Amino acid sequence: MAADASHHRRRRILVRVSSRQNPRAGGSLPVSALVYFSSASGNTTRFVEGCRLDEFGIHAMRIPLRPDEPELHVDEPYVLLTPTYGGGTIGKAVPVQVKRFLNDERNRSGIIGVIASGNTNFGEAYGIAGDIIAAKCRVPLLYRFELMGTSEDTATVREGLRRFFDECTQQEQR
Fold it and tell me: Which helix (H) or strand (E) holds 132?
């Protein structure tokens, strides 16, 4: 049953982005960045590296893990990839580091989509960090995957982000 629920909640990468969803529509900045958070385990980092996004000119930036690391400030449109924490407790689902990053208005203003990882053992809270961020920032939840993702997840995110960013760039050129 949990597998069926997780499959139902899995989302495909969206390709169409309206001006309402893209706060930078009409701007002059290129749309080609992925911002992600990865804990000390490095699972999210390995997932991002497996996507080989640099081959498409999409650069990835990691949200700092520790408070003593320099803050990340992003001045371009980006998709956020975040794990879901909290063991099913919705109030603890979004990592503190991601909250801190998004509390900076400059960072929050550039988000154009969210991808979330999670654990199907969390039940209805599987990947819920993505739903929370998407709702608060009024951007689409593009995809969710379990734990470290599969090779299919990596391929889907890789190709989906390429198409998503191509569509955003075409909209900005109109």
Answer: helix 128-137
How far, in Å, CA of 108 to CA of 111, rounded?
Answer: 6
CA distance 41 to 71: 20
Q: Both tokens of residue 117?
A: 């990882």
Query: For residue 30, what pLDDT is reported?
Result: 53
What is the distance, to the nearest Å, from the Cα of residue 103 to the centroid of all Cα atoms in its chain? Answer: 16
Strand partners of residue 145: 117
- The SS3 call for residue 143 is strand
Amino acid 23 reads P
Name the residue among 31, 107, 125 with its Cα closest to residue 64.
Answer: 107
- pTM for the whole structure: 0.83
The per-type count for the chain, helices as H runs and strands as E runs, is: 6, 5
